[in-house]
Design goal:
- With 291 residues, this protein is α+β, with helices and mostly antiparallel strands.
- The chain is 37% helix and 27% strand.
- It has twelve helices and 13 strands.
- The N and C termini lie far apart (46 Å).
Length: 291
Amino acid sequence: MQVPASVDYERATSLSHAIELLERHGPEARIVAGGHSLLPMMKLRLIQPEVLIDINDLSELSYIKIEGNELRIGAMARHAELLSSPLVGEHFPIIVEAEKVIADPIVRNRGTVGGSLCQADPSEDLSAVFSALKAKLVIQGSHGSRTVDATSFHDGPYSTVVSSDEILIEVKIPIRPGCGCAYEKVERRVGDWAIAAVGAAVYIEAGVIHDAGIGLTAVGSEHFNAPEAEAYLAGKSPSPELISEAARLAAENCHPSADQRGPEDYKRHLVQVLTERALTTSVERATRGGF
C-alpha cells in the first residue's frame, strides 16, 4: 500500500487565518480542500509537503452568484455545485458540459474549482473552459489581492503564478451579449483525463464574430488556449469554411506529446475535429440566443 510521508496538519477558520498559516509555514505548506489531486500525489511521493492547511471551513469562498455583468465563482465552490447551478447553466453551458465529464460523482461532490485550477494539471478541464471564456482569477495574500487573466494563471505544468503565501479566491467570468459556448472532450473511458478536449466561446453582434475564445487541454497548449485560431475568427462572419480553417489553425499550433493515450498526429486530429464541433455549436447557440 502506498502511503504519504508524515505531515503536520492545520485547519484554517477564515481566509485571513489561512493566509497567516501560509506565511508562518512557508513554501513547504500546501492547501487542501477536496484533496483528490493532492493526496494521490502525496501517496506516490511526487510531492512531500511538511504541512497541510485544511480550508474546508472557508464558507466565505463557497458561492456562485451574479454581480453586475459577471458570474462570480468562489474558489471553494464544488464541481457538483457548478454542475447543478441554474445560473451557470443559463449563462455558460460550456461549464456544465465540462463538469459532466470531470471524473465521477464522488470527486465532483468534494473537489473544488480552486483546487482544480491550482493543481495545474496539463489535462485539466476547467482551465480550458475559463481560458475560452476569458475569465479573470482573483488571488489574495497578506498584501492585498490581485487579478490575472485565466491565460496567465499557469506558468507551466503543475505550476501557477500563485505565491506560497497566497490563495486563489475567486473566478470572474464576464457576461457579454451574443455569447455562445460549448465543450467537447474525448477520453479513453468515462471519468478519465482527456486525450484531447476543446472549449469554445464566440460573441456575435450584427452577424459578425467580434470576439472568440478557444480553450485546449491535454495537447501541450502553454496557456490552455489557441490564440492564432481566436485571432483568425475575430471580425468575420461565421461560416462552415471559417470554422474549418480556425480548427485547422488550432490543431497546427498546439504541441501534443505521444503517450499511452495516443500519438501526436492522432491528438492533432482530435483537436481539429473537436474545435470544429465546439465552434459550430457555439455559433448555433449564439445565433439562437443561448443554450
